[in-house]
């Protein structure tokens, strides 16, 4: 599980250029607890950066992801959930603020944020590799 925390740090550091360039909110990347994440959703909704339906969908995703990861029985599952969801919520907020349209054919974008690596980090706790 320590690799997940390291993965979050590398994913976040890889996105730090984008973070400053876009004046992006640190609401989710600074989250350290479940309460930080949920209150961050409410804050972003209240200030108008997240539409109500998007914030509700993000909260539902959080609870579904948490239940799935906790049911895996993995050590430090709570920390894994908060770590992975903080990055996921940050990327979702960025997508709402600055939508990106992928062409049918495109070259992999690995900078300034490595989505490929993030998806592997996000999905890893949901798969039983035994």
From TrEMBL:
Pathway: Phospholipid metabolism; CDP-diacylglycerol biosynthesis; CDP-diacylglycerol from sn-glycerol 3-phosphate: step 1/3; Lipid metabolism. InterPro entries: G3P_O-acylTrfase_chlp, G3P_O-acylTrfase_N, GPAT_N_sf. GO terms for molecular function: glycerol-3-phosphate O-acyltransferase activity. Transmembrane segments: none annotated. Keywords: Acyltransferase, Lipid biosynthesis, Lipid metabolism, Phospholipid biosynthesis, Phospholipid metabolism, Transferase. GO terms for biological process: phospholipid biosynthetic process. Residues 26-100 form the Glycerol-3-phosphate O-acyltransferase alpha-helical bundle N-terminal domain. It comes from the Eukaryota. Its EC number is 2.3.1.15. Belongs to the GPAT/DAPAT family. This is glycerol-3-phosphate 1-O-acyltransferase. It comes from Eruca vesicaria subsp. sativa (Garden rocket). The lineage of its organism: Eukaryota, Viridiplantae, Streptophyta, Embryophyta, Tracheophyta.
């Amino acid at each position: 599980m320590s690799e997940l925390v390291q993965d979050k740090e590398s994913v976040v550091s890889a996105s730090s250029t984008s973070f400053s360039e876009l004046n992006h909110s640190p609401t989710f990347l600074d989250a350290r607890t479940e309460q930080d994440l949920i209150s961050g959703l409410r804050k972003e909704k209240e200030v108008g950066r997240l539409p109500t339906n998007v914030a509700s969908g993000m909260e539902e995703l959080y609870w579904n992801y948490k239940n799935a990861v906790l049911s895996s029985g993995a050590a430090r599952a709570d920390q894994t959930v908060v770590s992975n969801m903080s990055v996921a919520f940050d990327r979702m907020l960025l997508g709402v603020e600055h939508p990106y349209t992928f062409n049918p054919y495109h070259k992999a974008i690995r900078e300034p944020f490595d989505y490929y690596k993030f998806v592997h980090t996000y999905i890893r706790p949901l798969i039983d590799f035994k």
